[in-house]
Write a structure and sequence with these properties.
Length: 153
């Protein structure tokens, strides 16, 4: 994951989101093995927002980033994914693109979830990245009968 963190840091530096001095400070603070990683430390120090970190991850893994706050998801999109699948894998369908279901995930490295969804939905979804909090709230909103099963960190 260190290579991924360095790649995210390089992206953020190239965009001017962070400075080399901020990177140095975050690396110093995260050097202790019991501390959070460099990226989480940057969020903790308010050098970047959680959204900026997710956007960098999305770009790195070739996914689109979507904020789900206030997003209206049509009922026909929600109907494409049974509640038990959405709850089990902690994902939310967000739109249809050329008959492909776009599914928001919070962890772009969770290949097991991606493979399982392709199998269960009988087609390869298009994945986008959204925050854990946004997905949890969307699950409560769009699958209210299963709200008691929403995820915990």
């Amino acid at each position: 994951m260190l290579d991924d963190a360095n790649s995210f840091i390089d992206q953020l530096l190239q965009k001017g989101t962070i400075t080399p001095d901020q990177v140095r400070k975050a690396k110093q603070q995260s050097a202790d093995p019991t501390s959070a990683g460099v990226l989480d430390t940057m969020v903790y120090l308010h050098f970047i927002t959680p959204e900026q970190m997710l956007q960098a991850k999305a770009e790195h893994f070739g996914h689109e980033y979507k904020s789900l706050k206030g997003l209206e998801i049509p009922p026909e999109v929600i109907a494409r994914m049974p509640a038990h699948i959405a709850q089990r894998y902690k994902v939310i369908p967000v739109e249809l693109k050329d008959d492909s279901l776009v599914v928001a995930i919070s962890d772009p490295t969770d290949l097991d979830t991606m493979d399982s969804l392709a199998h269960l939905l009988h087609r390869l979804p298009i994945f986008c990245l959204a925050s854990w909090e946004d997905i949890n709230e969307a699950l409560k909103q769009f699958y209210p009968d299963t709200a008691s099963q929403t995820m915990t960190k």
